[in-house]
Amino acid sequence: MASLLQLLPFICLHFLTVIASFSSSNQTPKPYIVYLGSSSKIENGEAEDTELAHLQLLSSIIPSEESERISLIHHYKHAFKGFSAMLTEEEAFALSGHDEVVSVFPNLLLKFDTTRSWDFLEAEAGERSRSTWSNYRNHQPSTDVIIGVIDSGIWPESPSFNDKGFGEIPSRWKGVCMESPDFNKSNCNRKLIGARYYVANKSDTGSARDYDGHGTHCASTAAGAHVANASYYGLAQGKARGGSPSSRLAIYSACNAFGCLTSNVLKAFDDAIQDGVDIISVSLGFNQPYLHDPIAIGGFHAEQHGVLVVTSAGNAGPLPSTITKTAPWVFTVGASTIDRNFASTVLLGNEKSFQGSAISFSNLTRSKTYPLAFGKDIATNLSVVSQARSCSIRSVDPNKTVGKIVVCISSDSTIPWELFTRLAEGYILVDEDYKYVPSDSGLFPFAVVGNSDGSQIINYINSTKNPTATILPTVEVPRYKPAPVVAPFSSRGPGAFTENILKPDVTAPGVAILAAIVPDEESDLAGEKPADYGFMSGTSMACPHVAGAAAFIKSLHPTWTSTMIKSALITTATVYDNIGKPLKNSSGYYANPHEIGAGEISPPNALNPGFVFETTTEDYFRFLCYYGFSNKIIKLMTSTNFNCPKKSSHELISNINYPSISISKLDRHKAFRTIERTVTNVGSMNAIYTASIQAPSGLAVNVYPEKIEFAENVTRVSFKVSFNSKEADSGYNFGLITWWDGQDNYVRIVFAVNVE
Question: How far apart are the C-alpha atoms of 428 and 362, rounded to whole Å?
Fold first, then answer.
């Protein structure tokens, strides 16, 4: 059973916060990463030479009397070059100016950012697509696709990682199954084909075994085997499976209970690419510039090797501009709900009831009610009444919570859960956003209600001399509507580092997802066997949904490149919920592309997308130019003689061949702005597509030609989109271009245009 601290949504949802944990003194050695760019193919015999070269680089700046520091913590040599070592701030600065060095940055700590979710995604795809999806699944997809999961490790005994029905491991696999006292080579099998772990220094111990549960949950969501009768102590019972049960898994344990070190994450990327994975799923967060971000660096080199990198958008929503993973070479995923809720009913003494949201195994019943108290009415003193409304620390009198059910209005304050669970009988949180996010409270009676219900509960308290209530144990609410809804915690665009790439790319299920976990031997459910499956919420859970969908597409279209798969999932995403209305956010407003990207993924539709946008390596090189990196840096990163175009500016980022369009600044006083895209046919030969446009009033959008045709020998065609903002409202304008072949294929391109 999860700790009661997990009740707090922004703890339960694994907020993606970067923590610097080292001394600020510029003379105290600290772990740094030295990134040296792309690795020209290093043969085995040359590995020692590169390590020696890196040691010589260190010795050039570390004083001879401190020669013990001339050693490498990690050595990156496969997909990219570099190392991590102990340096002072001055030494790091000196190294950053070296001709061979791209960047030097501190070794910081990253934090972690199903029975129904896959069925829900299929149900939303439409009858024809569901039929196509079923037919494909019945044709036994390839088992050669390998998903690498960079996370907290794996619990190999979970039934989700059973290898029944799997043949021999693909001969191209170069990975290993690293042993430790609690993890044997026998823990790997034909499904779980590899496991590595990483430590901060050579004196540390490590293991690929997962003790957090995050990595196990993500791995089983992406590629877990079919498991009948999975549930969390009876809740959400059904068949658990990942998005691509036929895919293999390779685990890279780069994290521990405290988080994930940058150096470990980079080493995991380097190994995963070399080992031969096809897709990397990484549900971790970082808020640093591209050349200091291990996911941006690792993702860039993975893409150069044909590996699709899928990553979580972050859990810093619902504020705008909270998304940091804006590099075009990573697939960034926001989170949404599915059509299942977990209701914990609040029953008042006046017999009115309200359906709250929670995962609570409360032993309270209808037959007995308890005194009900609003936080501000049990404040420690008059000076903290306003804080007591939200039950912030030290604002509530502990003695006045005894035996009561306490009501609090959500705020950013930290809530004293230990106080409530030790003395109170139950807890009701009023939070409009988090009524969609059920948190696990174990045996403690708990419910989250929206603002309207919360107001009625507080009015009852104020109008009654002796208000009472009870909180009933959670029951599952199936076929919940509307769904999907954008999760309140899901990070929003526009991007922090560039607004000319639309992020997030898509959304996927990320709220109360049931998947494999680490069994909790200290469960407080007396007499119950520890659960093998449990719920987690966050964009961390949405990420492996997309990784699993991508792997399944890869298994059926093995010749498709990573960018073709990414395009297929983006351009076939849906913007409608299960009642046929446009997707909404948790506040009840229509969601925009900065919240949902192109929309909710629709894997069945992505199997036959019609045509795709292939974003090339040259597109990514041009992105680096347009972003402002020098030719010298780009040549180090790419090991090519690529030269930047003479005209390179940030606004030209909008022109790279991406499956969506974002323009950070459109001057209403200029005539128009034209964007060009090139598409590749993966559907019927001789297909003709016609464009239709949905644009806000005042924004003139034109596509030319209005029809594109793929003749027998023509597989690639281009089109242009012009935007004129003279009459448009200021700020971001969102819209959609849909190409239709007159039959079954609809290719949708979302655009976001900021008018100034």
Answer: 13
